[in-house]
């Protein structure tokens, strides 16, 4: 492979330049979008932990391995920002979302939003999750060829409406909002960001108006009569000096949260139920734990369910819902001893980090026991929720949602998955595909 230099450091510097392959930018752009894990793995083998490609008119550094991921995301030198890179990636639909913010605004908004994720708040959400999910699982399709991802995606939308927004709406109204939610979420992944009729972005802009109006209408009521939903928590959140989020800020955060929570949780649950459908011994192990608890497990009980926890971790190791985490260098800096010039985009590719053979023996196999009592692994070896200041604020909620769904499914259903196409066809870890399951209802004990 012929290599080229990203930028030369000062002659007095001990830093090394980042190297990357010579090649056509369009092919790198295509690979970065369609198969980032394979691109990162091949660059690591040929160039090392820090390399770069040119794509979409930019030079993009790829940081591999837990040390580089930790250095980038912890950002001790305050050299990286989210605004420029997520503004570019998420367009105008999610402007002012917390992930697009940088210090000091980010710190203030994060402190306020954190109040929606305290242990007491999570206990409240857990009660709602149990009620909602128990009744929805009772209506899951049975027989052969059940599209499990479709069931889980619909369920995740119901969770958003009930636990985030706190509404149980009449069906036509719920359907209208769910359609708007879906269009909004799809706009986040849309490549074309011009408001041209027919594009995902255009539909997303329209959906944004529908969703924003609904949030704005509800805020005065949530401020007056708060409930146990997430929006009420944001309406009540307060700084030491009494300052609160404005109505417009709550709308922005709710809209972004909906986006951040939906596909990610759907992918995590899809991966868990796929793996359980393929591994009967794990299905029975987690089922035994589910039956040792009640049909309304508490957040603490689910957190202490060791088998459930290991299955969740292994399922998102193999299929991380966020395959790439990007940052933009806002000044000249260094990463892993390499010179990073101001303006460079740097990405960590979670999918390839999660399969480094020196950290994860037999990396492609589903082996939840690898998390049992594990204390020696690098803290950033398993990194589906990122790290540093922007680490996923909904991490504990995401586990509770996924574990509650699997808990109720295992108490009422059995399922098997005959084909491994889900894994074979999504090696890129970027297609949100599903699988067909053979589902039956357990006879009542
Ligand atoms: C398994 C499911 C999930 C995964 C794998 C996941 C992953 C991530 C990752 C990797 C980031 C950091 C991105 C970065 O640093 O650039 C992030 C941020 C975020 N996530 Fe999640 N997420 C999940 C579910 C959720 C849920 C359920 C919520 C809300 C309840 C949520 C809300 C957020 C928010 C608000 C941020 C931005 C935090 C900030 O900028 O300070 N996520 N998530």
Automatic annotation (TrEMBL):
InterPro entries assigned to the protein according to its UniProt record, in alphabetical order: Cyt_P450 (IPR001128), Cyt_P450_B (IPR002397), Cyt_P450_CS (IPR017972), Cyt_P450_sf (IPR036396), Cytochrome_P450_monoxygenase (IPR050121)
Record key words, sorted: Heme, Iron, Metal-binding, Monooxygenase, Oxidoreductase
Any GO MF annotation of the entry: iron ion binding
Similarity annotation: Belongs to the cytochrome P450 family.
Organism, scientific name: Gordonia jinhuaensis
Cofactor: heme
Any Pfam family hit: p450
Region annotation Disordered: where it falls in the sequence: 1-22
Lineage of producing organism: Bacteria, Bacillati, Actinomycetota, Actinomycetes, Mycobacteriales
Keyword Glycoprotein tagged: no
Oxidoreductase is among the record's keywords: yes
PROSITE patterns in the cross-refs: CYTOCHROME_P450
Name of protein: Cytochrome P450
């Amino acid at each position: 492979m012929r290599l080229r230099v990203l930028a030369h450091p000062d002659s007095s510097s001990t830093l090394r330049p980042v190297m990357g392959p010579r090649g056509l930018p369009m092919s790198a752009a295509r690979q970065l979008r369609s198969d980032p894990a394979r691109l990162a793995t091949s660059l690591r083998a040929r160039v090392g932990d820090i390399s770069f490609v040119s794509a979409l008119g930019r030079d993009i550094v790829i940081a591999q391995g837990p040390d580089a991921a930790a250095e980038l995301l912890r950002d001790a030198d305050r050299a990286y920002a989210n605004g420029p890179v997520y503004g570019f990636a998420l367009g105008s639909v999610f402007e002012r979302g917390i992930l697009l913010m940088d210090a000091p605004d980010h710190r203030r908004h994060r402190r306020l939003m954190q109040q929606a994720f305290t242990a007491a708040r999570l206990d409240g959400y857990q009660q709602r999750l149990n009620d909602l999910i128990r009744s929805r699982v009772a209506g899951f399709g049975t027989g052969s060829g059940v599209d499990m991802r479709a069931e889980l995606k619909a369920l995740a939308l119901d969770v958003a409406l009930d636990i985030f927004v706190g509404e149980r709406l009449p069906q036509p109204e719920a359907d209208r909002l769910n359609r708007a939610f879906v269009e909004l979420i799809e706009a986040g992944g849309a490549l074309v960001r011009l408001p041209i009729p027919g594009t995902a972005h255009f539909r997303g802009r329209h959906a944004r108006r529908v969703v924003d109006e609904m949030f704005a209408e509800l805020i005065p009521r949530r401020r007056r009569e708060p409930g146990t939903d997430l929006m009420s928590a944001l309406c009540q959140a307060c700084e030491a000096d009494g300052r609160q989020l404005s109505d417009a800020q709550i709308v922005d955060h709710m809209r972004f949260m909906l986006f951040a929570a939906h596909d990610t949780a759907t992918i995590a649950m899809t991966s868990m139920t796929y793996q359980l459908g393929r591994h009967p011994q794990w299905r029975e192990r987690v089922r035994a734990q589910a039956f040792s608890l009640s049909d309304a497990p508490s957040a603490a009980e689910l957190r202490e369910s060791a088998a459930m926890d290991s299955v969740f971790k292994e399922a998102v190791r193999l299929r991380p819902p966020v395959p790439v985490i990007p940052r933009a260098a806002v000044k000249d800096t260094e990463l892993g001893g390499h010179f990073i010039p101001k303006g460079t985009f740097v990405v960590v590719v979670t999918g390839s980090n999660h399969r480094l053979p020196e950290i994860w023996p037999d990396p492609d196999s589903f082996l939840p026991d690898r998390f049992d009592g594990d204390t020696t692994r690098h803290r950033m070896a398993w990194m589906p929720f990122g790290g540093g200041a922007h680490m996923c604020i909904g991490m504990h909620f995401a586990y509770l949602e996924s574990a509650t769904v699997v808990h109720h499914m295992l108490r009422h259903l059995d399922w098997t998955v005959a084909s491994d196409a889900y894994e074979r066809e999504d090696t890129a870890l970027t297609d949100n595909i599903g699988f067909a399951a053979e589902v039956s209802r357990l006879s009542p004990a």
